[in-house]
TrEMBL record:
Organism: Mucilaginibacter pallidiroseus
Keyword Oxidoreductase found: yes
Protein name: Gfo/Idh/MocA family oxidoreductase
Pfam families assigned to the protein according to its UniProt record, in alphabetical order: GFO_IDH_MocA (PF01408), GFO_IDH_MocA_C3 (PF22725)
Keyword Oxidoreductase recorded: yes
MF terms in GO: nucleotide binding; oxidoreductase activity
Domain GFO/IDH/MocA-like oxidoreductase, residue spans: 240-339
Classification via InterPro entries: Gfo/Idh/MocA-like_OxRdtase_N, Gfo/Idh/MocA_oxidrdct_glycsds, GFO_IDH_MocA-like_dom, NAD(P)-bd_dom_sf
Keyword tags: Oxidoreductase
Residue ranges constituting the Gfo/Idh/MocA-like oxidoreductase N-terminal domain according to the UniProt record: 49-168
Length: 464
């Protein structure tokens, strides 16, 4: 057992475990209390950060609410292409906030320090680039790009402007993922070889059939601006506007919405820069409502050996008609155990180390040999291996749980604003964000082109 692994397991066994088989992590509680105490520090007027949200849909409202859990954050403006959401923004955040249907008016204001970009995917990159060039810090919803071709330019602009830029995939700020990363780096599961990760859903809302307002008409929606960067323009369609995730012209399908979360967590824990090859298949199995992206998708992704990790493979799956209800997990398999990151803020560490001896008898060819030959083989086997070498190591499960009520999104915004105030590096910068988004978007490329996509993770470009 490595020294790091011994230290990690000793820590779990002494300061964290409450029972022999399960725990509510005292360490997690302590970390969360430190975060709360830090957040409760008195904020001077000079430390106040004035924020605007561009895109006041589901993610825009939830992101804004998470941002406002951080002391010293003031919501001053909102932008959306549907008038009703601007009315709602004033209801939620005050009648005095500035509202507009043109994001450029937000970027031109001198009293805004940071913007949250929570529009449809096709606008993430351009608005983020424009915002950084206007001197704003940017929190961009995932995926940070709509097309693979956009990533390097966005990274370049961030470097040129030096503005704080963070991608909104909160797993990199999660206590649970931080502890899982510690477990992985300690060698608790041995040498990694494969990962299985999935999101299953079983509801109309989970499949993006969101509720439409009764006043969804061309008078209340800036349809021209919404589809301004689409190659093919179409007449106003409320389904395309309010359920844009269903259309590849504006969204990135299950891969860009959900695979990117799974890959973000995988890259964070393993330290990987990305895979070498990506192949995906899919179907439109159930939700035949006019969408042009699949509702079931599976991908096989190969990560080659690097200085950061050995070679391993990843299988990803999203199923919008799973039959089992809402369920997600990421299982990281190693030679000595598995990290199982379930639906919530926690994980289970299972350790099963194989015996030195290969085993003999049972479902084995030994029984097919003559009795005399069997006896000789058994005698030889027992001479070569001790009793200890014949036994594998099967430890009790360790279950890690974050404190009750913990929300990683709040921490993710706290990290973003701390970077603005102190210059500390963000936890998910443009390079990390693109390296997580690119293989997810490559899954779409593979699906639509029916071929393997080869990826240069170091230089962040398609090969061949």
């Amino acid at each position: 057992m490595s020294t790091d692994r011994r230290k990690f397991l000793k820590h779990l066994g002494t300061s964290v475990l409450l029972t022999s088989a399960s725990l509510t992590s005292l360490a997690a509680k302590e970390e969360n209390e430190v975060r709360i105490l830090e957040a409760q520090k008195r904020i001077s007027p000079n430390d106040k950060i004035r924020v605007a949200t561009i895109g006041m849909g589901i993610m825009g409202v939830n992101d804004t609410n998470a941002a406002l859990t951080v002391p010293g954050i003031e919501m001053v403006a909102a932008c959306d292409l549907y008038k009703g959401r601007l009315v709602r923004a004033k209801e939620l955040y005050g009648k005095d906030i500035f509202t507009t249907m043109d994001h450029r008016e937000i970027l031109d204001r001198k009293d805004i320090d940071a913007v949250i970009v929570a529009t449809s995917d096709n606008w993430h990159s351009q608005i983020s680039i424009d915002a950084m060039r206007k001197g704003k810090a940017v929190y961009s919803e995932k995926p940070m790009v709509h097309q693979l071709s956009q990533g390097l330019e966005e990274i370049a602009v961030q470097r040129q402007t030096g503005k704080v830029f963070q991608v909104g995939s909160q797993r990199v700020s999660s206590i649970a993922y931080r502890k899982a990363k510690e477990a992985y780096e300690s060698g608790a599961i041995g040498k990694i070889n494969s990962i299985e990760a999935l999101f299953n859903r079983q509801s109309a809302l989970g499949a993006w059939q969101y509720t439409l307002p009764l006043d969804a008409n061309i008078q209340n929606v800036d349809w021209a601006r919404f589809q301004a960067n689409a190659k093919n323009k179409v007449d106003f369609d409320p389904l395309r506007f309010f359920r844009w995730r269903n259309y590849r012209e504006y969204g990135t399908g299950v891969a860009g919405d959900l695979f990117v979360h799974l890959l973000t967590g995988i890259h964070y824990i393993t330290g990987s820069k990305g895979p070498e090859s990506i192949y995906s298949i899919g179907d439109l199995a159930y939700w035949k409502d006019g969408r042009n992206v699949p509702d079931v998708m599976s991908a096989v992704i190969h990560y080659g050996e690097t200085k950061e990790h050995p070679a391993f493979q990843v299988t990803l799956r999203v199923n919008f008609v799973s039959g089992e209800g809402e369920h997600s997990t990421t299982k990281i398999y190693g030679s000595d155990g598995v990290l199982d990151l379930g639906d919530g803020e926690g994980f289970t560490l299972r350790r099963n180390k194989m015996s030195v001896a290969p085993g003999i008898g049972g479902w084995d060819s030994l029984m097919t040999y003559p009795e005399a030959e069997q006896k000789k083989i058994l005698d030889d086997y027992n001479k070569r291996y001790t009793a200890a070498q014949k036994e594998g190591q099967h430890d009790q499960d360790v279950i890690f749980k974050a404190p009750q009520g913990y929300n990683a999104s709040n921490d993710h915004f706290a990290n973003f604003f701390e970077s603005i105030r102190t210059g500390k590096p963000v936890v998910e910068d443009a390079v990390f964000g693109f390296r997580a988004a690119a293989p997810a978007l490559a899954c779409n490329e593979s699906y639509f082109q029916k071929k393997v996509i080869h990826w240069d993770a170091e230089n962040m470009k398609v090969v061949g």
